[in-house]
Amino acid sequence: MKEGLAPFAYQGETHHTYYKVFGELEGRTRPPIVVLHGGPGLTHDYTLPHADLAEQSFPVVFYDQLGSGRSTHLREKPLSFWAIDLFLDELENLLQHLGIHDEFHIVGQSWGGMMASEYVLRRHPKGLRRLVIEGSPADMVSWNGSSKALLEKFPQWVKDTLAKGPSDRVPYWNAMLEFYKIHGCRVQPFPEDFIRTLEFKYGENGDRTVDGSHILKGWTIVDCLHDVDVPTLVVNGAYDIADDEIVKPYVENIPNSKWVKFDSSSHTPFWEEREKYMQIVGEFLAE
């Protein structure tokens, strides 16, 4: 494993994107996989099981998006600074920095899959070979409705605490984990990397500057998905926040897409059905 910081020049300032690579980029025999984490505002840590794919000769690249984890934090920036194109520029900068822009795959989880879809439609990257969209909504109205419906089954204290938001940190943390036990990650106790990701955003010194509530307000990509022109695998779990209706627009509108549902998983099948997930994703990327 190698790690580093990629300088990222944006609007007259230079920031830094933290990245981590498993496998060798030099002399590679297969396109590297770039993993886009969720949020916005989470970190790569909880997606680290994808490093298993390096055993199939795929170099695997993880990174923390700007404002998150080990990358540059910008708490003073106005809400208008945090936009989808910012994160697409950062991704393109990292691809260039690592010298992999001419041939690569993307695995996007949750917000990462939304971002990857926007990347294809807004930038038409010539080097992108295959795309995996895992647990991602195609529009925020459906996502919010699904989350609300799932939450209705929980005790009143969980509903009330989450409705108040994270300003009262400890009760919010406890309520959030109750929800995630069922719909976020059903591996118990939670993996350390999963908890570490949450701590970066919701812990005692967490940074919640990057918040999807303003970046993705009213967001939808449904009407554009027919223009996604790369082979795409859509993934979700039986207990996923992204239920079948949530991922269906990707399946029905992306030409020749494939869909795999993991029956014993929620939002993180790469933890919950790890071996099966790696086999299926690896085979798809190797086609």
UniProtKB/TrEMBL annotation:
Keywords: Hydrolase
Keyword Nucleus in record: no
AB hydrolase-1 domain segment(s): 31-273
Gene Ontology CC, one term: membrane
Pfam family, one: Abhydrolase_1
Any one Gene Ontology molecular-function term assigned to this protein's record: peptidase activity
Protein's GO biological process: proteolysis
InterPro entries given in the database record: AB_hydrolase_1, AB_hydrolase_fold, AB_hydrolase_sf, Peptidase_S33, Pro_imino_pep
Organism domain of life: Eukaryota
Gene3D superfamilies in UniProt: alpha/beta hydrolase
Record bears the keyword Isomerase: no
Family per record: Belongs to the peptidase S33 family.
Protein name in UniProt: Proline-specific peptidase
Taxonomic lineage: Eukaryota, Fungi, Dikarya, Basidiomycota, Agaricomycotina
